[in-house]
């Protein structure tokens, strides 16, 4: 099965994040009349409402990011700690582990600054941080944090406190994930004993159900299938009883998926598929499709369906006392709609599905000696590689596809044969899934021949086609880096990698993300120069001359430089590069919604400038700027100039925060020498005249 333990380990035992609100959620009142107070209780109520209406997939992230900003602006450390703890739990549920590591670091630093070490809040915060690190597979750090948390908890919590049970539960999962089975079972049974004795009603205790599911999986891995079945049934029985009392828990997905794995091990494949279907419904409803939870469970569902079909088994859940727990998932839903359907997928999801269903089995059966040496994924040209494809994208060069990247040696041995096999399975898979909603998409000449976007490639050839380099230029070759356009670098570093056991492709791709710091600073300086020349100097002059076309060109140059600058300020190694013009605003909007993004307000201000541009430069259609008549109190040209100056002031503020300038000057040309002071190299190409 596909990473089932990792999936369920992330789903289950998440009750550790449910901290005592009295510890971390009560915000102190803010005495400042100028800064609005942060209401932690109201924040938590709003977050609960989002989860209650099952809108977390689309609404939780921006809500948390805004709350973080509000708490910081109110200088409310207690409120900020509340938001960070909730953010850790949500990011973990979404599989956003890279982003979460920054949240963990920030949370610990904040708690230490607040002097919370040795308190209940400190123990709870350590538990949350450790669980986030465990989900990210940073096991050494997670174990250290859990150990600190347990030591603190034993000092400040009562012996029957549920948070101590949560600690033992999570330590068990860490030991299980690091192949320390005996320690894992010992810790888990400790957690179960604590919960059973502390619970007011064990028959409806969701936390106890999560522990039973974990124990079932542990026993299953040890070959004790009958015992695993027993505890999986116990977990579902608790969820059934809790559901009847109106307790709606997302953790029922882990119980359903756990039972599915037990049934699969018992070769009752049809029942396994039935449980996976129900689990998938909960995951999609709670977390959305664009999560590792959904993809892993969906892959397991397909495997169970295939096994059921091969063995002539009917798909469904028997009407036993535990199977009815599925009724709590999504009443009235048509089970057929829960099956994976390529018509509703974006291109990256479709690529992963094609790989898992057709590509991976083909490699394992026909190239067993090479299967673990081949990197697989989707990177390069195409809107789906950036995650921006939609229904309009399907009119050309669109379809299920992925890339296979080989070393030169492996390509020489199997490259030609593998390409033929890839084309064979691609034709068969596309024919099988073709429909009115997903018709054949014509291939344009730009996506064929040497510019083809899928199939088998030598690793070096692939990157050379995109960038002109077989690997990233050396760090001490700034002139070569400056010759690479940002959109080229974006294309070489976008997309996703599905498999790369050797790590060669990933390492090569990552090399292009490591733009030398001197080059980044030089480009920031260049963008400051263009912003000053196009927006602050030439645009007002062109408007005064009545040259609408030149004014519009100035706005374009200012906009492009501003977008590039935002990506450079946020550092491409963290956020990627600004893509080519078609997707620059889509990428900027996405970046601006991310937590802790620098200059997040630039996007909205640039869009406002573009809305005003036509009226400012040309007035009514068919006229020139000389003849335009403003119907507003402030002419569009004046409004644009005001916005530009506000953007430039924001940029100066960010440069100061980054320590890149000591100057208050808002004409950005004069900021360039301060930025270039930080360039270490004396290479002439890095410095302005």
Automatic annotation (TrEMBL):
Pfam families: DUF4037, TPR_12. It comes from the Bacteria. The keyword Cytoplasm does not apply. The keyword Repeat applies. Residues 24-34 have a biased composition (Low complexity). Residues 481-583 form the DUF4037 domain. Transmembrane segments: none annotated. Keywords: Repeat, TPR repeat. Coiled coil: none annotated. InterPro entries: DUF4037, TPR-like_helical_dom_sf, TPR_rpt. Residues 13-35 are annotated as: Disordered. This is Tetratricopeptide repeat protein. It comes from Bifidobacterium angulatum DSM 20098 = JCM 7096.
């Amino acid at each position: 099965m596909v990473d089932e333990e990792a999936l369920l380990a992330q789903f289950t035992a998440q009750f550790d994040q449910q901290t005592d609100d009295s510890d971390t959620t009560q915000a102190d009142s803010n005495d400042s009349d100028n800064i609005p107070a942060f209401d932690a209780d109201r924040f938590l109520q709003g977050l609960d409402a989002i989860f209650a209406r099952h809108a977390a997939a689309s609404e939780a992230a921006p809500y948390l990011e805004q709350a973080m900003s509000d708490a910081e602006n109110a200088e409310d450390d207690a409120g900020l700690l509340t938001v960070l703890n909730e953010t850790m739990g949500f990011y973990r549920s979404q599989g956003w582990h890279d982003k979460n590591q920054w949240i963990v670091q920030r949370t610990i630093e904040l708690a230490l600054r607040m002097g919370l070490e040795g308190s209940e809040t400190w123990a709870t915060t350590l538990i949350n941080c450790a669980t986030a690190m465990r989900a990210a597979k940073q096991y050494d750090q997670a174990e250290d944090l859990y150990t600190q948390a347990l030591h603190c908890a034993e000092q400040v919590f009562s012996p029957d406190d549920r948070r101590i049970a949560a600690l033992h539960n999570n330590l068990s999962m860490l030991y299980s994930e690091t192949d320390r089975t005996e320690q894992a079972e010992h810790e888990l049974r400790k957690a179960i004993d604590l919960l059973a004795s502390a619970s007011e009603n064990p028959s409806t205790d969701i936390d106890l159900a999560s522990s039973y599911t974990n124990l079932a999986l542990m026993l299953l891995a040890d070959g004790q299938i009958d015992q695993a079945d027993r505890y999986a049934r116990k977990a579902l029985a608790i969820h059934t009883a809790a559901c009847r009392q109106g307790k709606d828990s997302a953790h029922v997905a882990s119980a359903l998926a756990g039972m599915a794995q037990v049934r699969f091990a018992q070769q009752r494949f049809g029942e396994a598929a039935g449980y996976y279907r129900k689990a998938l419904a909960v995951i999609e409803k709670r977390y959305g499709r664009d999560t590792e939870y959904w993809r892993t469970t969906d892959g397991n569902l397909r495997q169970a369906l295939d096994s059921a079909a091969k063995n002539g088994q009917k798909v469904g859940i028997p009407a036993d006392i535990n199977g009815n727990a599925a009724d709590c998932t999504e009443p009235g839903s048509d089970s057929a709609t829960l099956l994976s359907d390529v018509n509703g997928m974006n291109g990256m999801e479709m690529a992963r599905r094609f790989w898992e269903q057709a590509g991976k089995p083909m490699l394992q059966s026909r190239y067993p000696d090479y299967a673990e040496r081949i990197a697989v994924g989707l990177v390069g040209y195409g809107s789906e590689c950036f995650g921006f494809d939609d229904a309009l994208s399907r009119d050309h060069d669109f379809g299920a596809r992925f890339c296979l990247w080989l070393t030169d040696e492996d390509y020489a041995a199997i490259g030609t044969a593998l390409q033929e096999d890839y084309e064979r399975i691609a034709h068969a898979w596309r024919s099988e899934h073709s429909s009115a909603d997903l018709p054949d998409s014509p291939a344009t000449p730009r996506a064929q021949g040497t510019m083809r976007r899928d199939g088998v490639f030598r690793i070096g050839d692939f990157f050379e086609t995109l960038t002109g380099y077989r690997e990233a230029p050396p760090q001490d070759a700034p002139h070569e880096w400056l010759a690479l356009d940002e959109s080229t670098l974006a294309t070489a570093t976008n997309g996703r990698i599905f498999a790369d056991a050797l790590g060669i492709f990933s390492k090569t791709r990552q090399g292009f993300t490591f733009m030398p710091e001197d080059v980044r600073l030089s480009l920031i300086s260049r963008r400051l120069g263009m912003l000053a020349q196009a927006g602050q100097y030439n645009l007002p002059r062109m408007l005064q001359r009545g040259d609408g076309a030149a004014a519009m060109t100035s706005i374009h140059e200012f906009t492009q430089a501003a977008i590039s600058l935002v990506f450079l300020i946020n550092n491409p190694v963290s956020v990627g590069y600004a893509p080519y013009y078609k997707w620059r605003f889509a990428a900027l909007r996405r970046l601006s919604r991310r937590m802790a993004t620098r200059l997040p307000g630039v996007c909205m201000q640039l869009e406002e400038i573009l809305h005003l541009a036509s009226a400012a430069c040309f007035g009514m259609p068919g006229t020139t700027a000389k003849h335009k008549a403003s119907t507003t109190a402030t002419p569009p040209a004046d409004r644009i100039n005001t916005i530009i100056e506000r953007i430039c002031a924001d940029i100066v503020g960010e440069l100061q925060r980054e320590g890149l300038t000591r100057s208050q000057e808002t004409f950005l040309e004069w900021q360039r020498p301060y930025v270039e002071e930080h360039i270490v190299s004396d290479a002439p190409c890095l410095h302005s005249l």
